Design the sequence.
């Protein structure tokens, strides 16, 4: 009996030892699983030189490209055209992952860190890509795209994808925010009269943030219960971004030239105070600090908001009478100016990148070129996306003139204007999101009245400074 | 007559309390049997929990972030120092402990009362049990979505009901204001987990032999006394199991709160794991997150230890 | 003995059940009505547009007419298959391993018993998200990532501690005298086990089984990290397919949630019968 139990114990211990040897807890994970390709053809086709050889037959025959893309209704329409690429080039495309923006960001970060990347092409975004550079997950694209190929994209947007002199992302479509306002409230003669009586001023679309604040607070008193003058997204990166917008408009900066946090300047305090005062006056829905994009849009289409800044991308949803109570009842304007004298516009573009783990970067580049060519961009623009090719813009503005709805044309022209003048991305550093995580709860506390604006922003600045220090920004 | 029955019932009670440990202790031949029986459990847990936790422990002594994984540096106890100095962490810790305490106690009381009430209903009991268990069948993230909608200030169920009653929009920000946010996540948690208590207690109550209850009745006990002096003591092991398990489970609470409030606004409903998750994944401070996880696990361990001791004590008391 | 009508019990029970049932009811209702009626004020209590489009789309029978409906793009069949396999297999494994462990804890006194027991409980104190990244690294090295059996292993480990604990409780409650009585009556050790012990721990098995199944069926944190493609993705991460950064398809999500609930309910009903049988058999006959 003793012998048997001894045997059992020995076996268990050996299993444990073997297991420990196989998985040394101390190693940093190395990049693993390469892109799967069909056996022999891989070596043959990938050994082509950088310049694509156009063989008679199909250039990428036998190659399988895997992709991790953003998913969700409208984003996925374009993926339906992928078979055409497969037809033309002989490559096979497999989308191994589809998720919303935050899901795919998390996945990319996790995969880059754990070395579990098994895709060639991935979604990217101007606000996120710097993280992936830091994680050494994507490669520069300068060698795969010529200047001519890139010339059609709106320059300001293309430049947002450049860092350290290299291009990292190819834009797909962008979004920027404009001031949306209800014509049946702001242009309503009854309302205008009441407003004049109450404040002595005319009710008009605000052109500065000071006017915005005054108008909202005064307007709120005239609105029925459950309807609010304005709203903002109130949590996570969304809140930081909206704050950033106003901060810039008021002449402030997020980081200064030495990467020290600068949002606790006068401009920053003014911006934060505006949010707080609007909330305090009841001019924003009380649940605001729980809102992200869907929630603000839902309130808008339910008819509960008078004016607010919102992404262009929502347009078709807003104008759909079966889904929106404000279809046909709103107009857009450029974002208000602040003390800084500029119209702000927090913007970002969705894009594509090639992963470092890819074994077929040429094929991946060709795939990206397909996805961002004129035809695909034109189709996407039909869904309401703001695409980045200038040639497509000309086309769709012409077509919009034919619909008979002036707002269709106006919005496109505004969008184009904003893209070329107001397009402001958040600071292009990987620390944007971590700094946002520090800042937004404090902004929330300021809005809710828990913290004083100056004190709160100072606190946030101190923590962000520590964050940047740990990240090695101050040599 | 009465005395005979009482003696008989007392003997039965004694019998019921004798555990099998007496038999198990003696023989030499099955001295190693228990270890053999435990090996599968030990192996699988070492694999799925042990190794990852060892790796995580290692990471907690470094400056690993998801993005700089190529250049790890050993930093000793620095992360732990940061953890203990972090007011947000300490706040979440306190909040989590409060959350667990209130939730477990309320679930216990409600569970006991409901289980007792249900045990009296014979006909249709299995349907009742199935309905009762429905909240348990929901994925916690789904419960999060449900209650996020229920407590939504603009279009949520509760505010809409109030709207119907009062005829005008009543906007109560359930997920925002100070006590309301905490209460909302408590309600969601209690809704989701009381059925667990009910089922465990019901099983316990149903396994009390009727003779004991009869004996008590014969002795002149009424409903409440039967409940207090027979039912509850008989299911004490079940109670401890249920409460210990629930405490640990709530301590793990993440899915529910993350969906409902994300720990906000401004950390008002921040529990430990929502904070750790955000720190580790969104802020990418994975090493710090690991250190925080360890501190939390150690504290959870202390709670477990406490409940375990209570369980042993209860068992010893009952071993007549 | 007369249990009587116990009116207060009935009232309490029905009120309580109503409260617990309302969200379920809402889930079903939401899955049947168009998105515009779902999150509105004034609320739409009685929908005039009840239809089962979202179900049809999910099950592959129809195309969702609404713009922001995602139903037909969701690989429902794969999710169902993966969830079913993972949950049932991990439950069975956990029951076997856990019962063995529970038997060991309750019936034997041995050195290190308390220590091992405590470690098992400690293992349960660790949430999925704390494990997720290290586990991903480990599984990837072993080739277990994005595989159903990888998930099965993870879930079995998650369920063993609780099963062991519960079974230790149930087994410990069985008096050996009953077993001895059966032996005296002429049964062999094995048939005594089958006839006396097994029915008595039936409720324990049923309870552990229910909890293990539901835990695995509804688990999200680990699944969301380990699974990537439809080869192994289960329902909970699949729910997020319905949420997009901008507009979510709540109706579709509710439809899939209802469909998710169905197997869980069926399983619970089946196992519940065992629970009752075990309990009635388990009454101590004097």
Sequence:
């Amino acid at each position: 009996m003793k012998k048997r139990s001894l045997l059992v114990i020995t076996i268990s211990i050996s299993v444990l030892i073997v297991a420990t040897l196989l998985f040394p807890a101390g190693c940093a994970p190395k990049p693993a699983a390469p892109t799967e390709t069909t056996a022999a053809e891989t070596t043959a086709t990938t050994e082509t030189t950088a310049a694509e050889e156009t063989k008679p037959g199909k250039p990428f025959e036998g190659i399988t490209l895997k992709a991790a893309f953003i998913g969700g209704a409208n984003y996925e329409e374009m993926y339906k055209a992928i078979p055409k690429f497969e037809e033309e080039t002989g490559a096979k495309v497999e989308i191994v992952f589809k998720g919303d923006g935050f899901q795919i960001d998390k996945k990319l970060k996790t995969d880059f860190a754990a070395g579990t990347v098994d895709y060639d092409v991935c979604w990217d975004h101007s606000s996120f890509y710097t993280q992936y550079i830091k994680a050494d997950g994507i490669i520069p694209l300068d060698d795969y795209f010529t200047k001519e190929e890139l010339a059609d994209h709106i320059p300001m947007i293309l430049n947002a994808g450049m860092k350290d002199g290299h291009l990292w992302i190819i834009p797909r479509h962008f979004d920027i925010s404009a001031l949306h306002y209800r014509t049946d409230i702001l242009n309503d003669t009854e309302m205008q009269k009441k407003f004049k009586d109450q404040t002595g001023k005319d009710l008009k679309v605000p052109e500065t943030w000071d006017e915005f604040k005054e108008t909202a607070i005064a307007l709120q008193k005239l609105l029925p219960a459950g309807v609010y003058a304005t709203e903002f997204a109130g949590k996570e990166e969304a809140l930081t971004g909206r704050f950033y917008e106003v901060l810039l408009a008021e002449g402030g900066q997020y980081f200064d030239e030495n990467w020290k946090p600068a949002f606790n300047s006068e401009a920053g305090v003014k911006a934060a105070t505006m949010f707080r005062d609007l909330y305090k006056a009841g001019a924003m829905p009380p649940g605001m600090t729980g809102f992200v994009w869907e929630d603000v849009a839902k309130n808008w289409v339910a008819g509960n908001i008078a004016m607010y800044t919102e992404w262009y991308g929502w347009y078709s949803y807003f104008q759909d009478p079966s889904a929106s109570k404000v279809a046909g009842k709103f107009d857009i304007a450029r974002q208000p100016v602040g003390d800084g004298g500029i119209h702000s516009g927090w913007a970002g573009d969705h894009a594509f990148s090639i992963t470092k783990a890819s074994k077929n970067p040429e094929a991946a580049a060709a795939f990206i070129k397909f996805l961002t060519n004129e035809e695909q961009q034109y189709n996407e623009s039909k869904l309401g996306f703001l695409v980045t090719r200038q040639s497509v813009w000309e086309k769709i503005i012409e077509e919009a003139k034919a619909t008979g709805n002036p707002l269709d044309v106006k919005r496109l022209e505004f969008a184009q204007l904003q893209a070329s003048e107001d397009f402001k991305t958040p600071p292009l550093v990987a620390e944007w999101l971590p700094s946002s995580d520090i800042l937004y709860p404090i902004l929330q506390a300021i809005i809710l009245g828990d913290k004083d604006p100056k004190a709160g922003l100072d606190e946030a600045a101190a923590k962000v400074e520590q964050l940047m220090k740990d990240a090695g920004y101050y040599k | 007559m009465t005395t005979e029955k009482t003696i008989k019932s007392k003997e039965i009670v004694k019998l019921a309390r004798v555990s099998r440990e007496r038999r198990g202790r003696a023989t030499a031949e099955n001295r190693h049997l228990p270890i053999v029986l435990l090996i599968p459990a030990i192996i699988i847990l070492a694999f799925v929990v042990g190794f990852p936790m060892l790796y995580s422990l290692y990471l907690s002594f470094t400056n690993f972030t998801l993005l700089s994984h190529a250049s790890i540096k050993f930093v000793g106890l620095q992360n732990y120092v940061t953890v203990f100095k972090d007011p947000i962490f300490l706040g979440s810790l306190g909040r989590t402990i409060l959350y667990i305490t209130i939730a477990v106690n309320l679930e216990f009381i409600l569970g006991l009362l409901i289980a007792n009430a249900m045990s009296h209903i014979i006909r249709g009991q299995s349907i009742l049990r199935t309905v009762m268990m429905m909240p348990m069948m929901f994925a916690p993230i789904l419960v999060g979505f449900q209650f996020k909608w229920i407590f939504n200030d603009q279009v949520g169920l509760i505010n809409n009901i109030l709207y119907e009653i009062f005829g005008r929009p009543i906007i109560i920000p359930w997920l925002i204001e100070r006590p309301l946010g905490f209460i909302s996540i408590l309600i969601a948690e209690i809704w989701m987990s009381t059925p667990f208590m009910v089922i465990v207690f019901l099983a316990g109550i149903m396994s009390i032999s009727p003779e004991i209850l009869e004996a008590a009745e014969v002795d002149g006990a009424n409903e409440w006394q039967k409940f207090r002096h027979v039912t509850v003591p008989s299911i004490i092991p079940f109670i401890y199991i249920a409460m210990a398990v629930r405490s640990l489970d709530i301590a793990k609470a993440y899915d529910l709160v993350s969906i409902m409030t994300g720990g906000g606004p401004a950390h008002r409903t921040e529990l430990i794991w929502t904070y750790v998750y955000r720190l580790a994944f969104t802020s990418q401070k994975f090493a710090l997150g690991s250190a925080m996880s360890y501190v939390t696990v150690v504290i959870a361990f202390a709670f477990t230890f406490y409940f375990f001791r209570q369980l042993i004590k209860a068992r010893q008391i009952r071993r007549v | 003995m007369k249990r009587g009508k116990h009116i207060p019990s009935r009232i309490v029970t029905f009120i309580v059940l109503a409260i617990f049932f309302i969200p379920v009811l809402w889930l079903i209702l939401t899955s049947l009505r168009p998105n515009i009626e779902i999150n509105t004020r004034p609320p739409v209590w009685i929908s005039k547009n009840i239809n089962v489009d979202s179900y049809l789309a999910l099950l592959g029978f129809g195309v969702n007419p609404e713009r922001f409906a995602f139903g037909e793009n969701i690989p429902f069949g794969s999710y169902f298959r993966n969830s079913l396999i993972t949950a049932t297999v991990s439950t069975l494994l956990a029951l076997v391993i856990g019962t063995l462990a529970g038997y060991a804890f309750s019936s034997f006194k041995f050195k290190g018993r308390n220590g091992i027991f405590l470690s098992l409980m400690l293992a349960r104190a660790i949430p999925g998200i704390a494990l997720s990244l290290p586990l991903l690294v480990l599984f990837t090295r072993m080739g277990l990532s994005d595989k159903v059996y990888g998930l099965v292993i993870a879930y079995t480990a998650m369920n063993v501690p609780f099963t062991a604990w519960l079974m230790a409780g149930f087994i410990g409650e069985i008096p050996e005298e009953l077993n001895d009585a059966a032996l005296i009556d002429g049964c062999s050790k094995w048939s005594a086990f089958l006839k006396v012990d097994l029915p008595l721990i039936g409720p324990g098995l049923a309870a552990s089984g229910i909890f293990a199944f539901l835990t695995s069926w509804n688990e999200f944190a680990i699944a969301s990290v380990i699974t990537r493609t439809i080869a192994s993705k289960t329902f909970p991460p699949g729910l997020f397919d319905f949420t997009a950064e901008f507009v979510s398809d709540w109706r579709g999500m509710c439809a899939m949630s209802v469909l998710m609930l169905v197997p869980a309910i069926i399983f619970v009903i089946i196992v519940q019968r065992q629970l009752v049988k075990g309990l009635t058999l388990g009454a101590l006959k004097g």
